[in-house]
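Why should sequence recovery work at all? Because a backbone constrains its sequence more than one might expect. Tight turns favour small or flexible residues, buried strands favour hydrophobic ones, and helices have their own preferences. The token representation captures these environments compactly. In the example below, the structure is given first.
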């Protein structure tokens, strides 16, 4: 009887955690908002931009669900200014997956991370469910330092696609397990429960410590850490939305760059995700989209600042797909007022913008498949090892 109860409780627990991973999709429409949290934007003059010929480091920032309307919501909400506006090489990425005109974040993430179109739900595997090497893993093989940052659980589809190989995106514990098969230098995001409250009773946080990682629960706690392997699990599941998260994303981006800078003579690869822009789209909530966009832009600001100083860092900002079929119907650039509308509570099939800055940025103009972003990064890094 005891055993039966325990089993029942476990079932309930597992059921609720996986549900909690997806409940951001409930529609909660809010079409108009007046922003009142403005941030300062740093614009760089041509004179300040002296880049080397080739990038040694790449920082790829993915705004999940970030189409042109989401970007312009951010521009309007911040009274016309975004750090993103510094990025003058611009192209468009076609996001269709192998099995659907409208991609999900797993197939979209895998296209960006591994350079192959796959089926919706696939994490770092091809259409035959066979693992494909990601740019992060290839960077590791080529002795670069690597990092991942996200505002969702770090096991969620977008970051997972860079480090894990699983047939289904909902296999969060297996995805957390895949982190142990790599030499990733720094990762910061939510999802602590998938590392320490597992069905298989492994405690991956303890395993990480054994592997030499410094493990923390917040970026603040890790303020004194300047080097060495670092894992920060900032929430049990997903992090809260922008209102309750503080500066987690820009701070985590800064911390990851600090750790990766100088971690390897060969340079680094870092992926940073503004995960919840997508959730604002699913909810048809323009102010959620706007708040997440402005938070993401502050992380972009950190990456651009490093790129200007280092001169050998390519920064790319793009999305996996658009969410909400969002349009902007009105606004006031002086007040930060936005009036938007949505055509769906799901993703749309629209192409999404690609912004680039730094050495190699000129490669990103045009309209191309999302898999080309992987190919361009691979080519610019001049990797010797073949994929
Ligand atoms: Mg995502
Ligand atoms: Zn989504």
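From this structural description, the recovered sequence reads:
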């Amino acid at each position: 009887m005891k055993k039966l109860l325990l089993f029942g409780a476990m079932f309930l627990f597992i059921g609720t955690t996986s549900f909690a991973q997806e409940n951001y999709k409930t529609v909660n429409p809010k079409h108009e908002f007046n922003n009142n949290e403005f941030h300062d934007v740093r614009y760089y003059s041509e004179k300040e931009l002296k880049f080397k010929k080739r990038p040694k480091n790449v920082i790829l920032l993915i705004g999940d669900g970030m189409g042109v309307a989401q970007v312009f919501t951010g521009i309007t909400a911040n009274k016309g200014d975004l750090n993103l506006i510094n990025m003058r090489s611009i192209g468009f990425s076609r996001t269709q997956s192998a099995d659907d005109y409208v991609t999900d974040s797993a197939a979209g993430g895998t296209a960006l991370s591994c350079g192959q179109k796959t089926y919706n739900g696939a994490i770092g595997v091809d259409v035959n469910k066979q693992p494909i090497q990601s740019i992060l893993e290839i960077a590791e093989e080529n002795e670069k330092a690597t990092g991942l940052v996200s505002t969702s659980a770090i096991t969620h589809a977008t970051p997972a696609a860079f480090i894990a190989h699983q047939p289904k995106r909902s296999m969060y514990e297996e995805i957390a397990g895949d982190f142990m098969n790599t030499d990733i230098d720094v990762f910061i995001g939510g999802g602590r429960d998938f590392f320490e409250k597992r069905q298989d009773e492994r405690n991956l946080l303890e395993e990480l410590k054994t592997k030499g990682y410094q493990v923390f629960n917040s970026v603040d706690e890790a303020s004194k850490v300047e080097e060495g392997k670092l894992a920060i699990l900032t929430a049990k599941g997903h992090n809260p939305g922008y209102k309750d998260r503080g500066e987690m994303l820009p701070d985590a981006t800064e911390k990851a760059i600090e750790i990766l800078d100088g971690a390897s003579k060969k340079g680094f690869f870092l992926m940073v995700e503004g995960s919840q822009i997508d959730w604002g789209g699913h909810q048809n909530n323009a102010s959620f989209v706007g708040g997440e966009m402005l938070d993401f832009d502050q992380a972009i600001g950190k990456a651009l600042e490093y790129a200007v100083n280092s001169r050998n860092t390519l920064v790319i900002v793009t999305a996996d797909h658009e969410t909400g079929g969002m349009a902007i119907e009105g606004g006031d650039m002086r007040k930060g007022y936005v009036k938007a509308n949505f055509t769906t509570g799901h993703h749309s099939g629209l192409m999404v913008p690609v912004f680039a800055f730094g050495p190699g940025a000129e490669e990103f103009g045009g309209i191309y498949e999302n898999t080309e972003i992987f190919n361009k990064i691979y080519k610019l890094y001049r990797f010797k090892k073949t994929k």
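A few observations help interpret the result. The domain at 30-381 is CATH 3.40.720.10 (Alkaline Phosphatase, subunit A).
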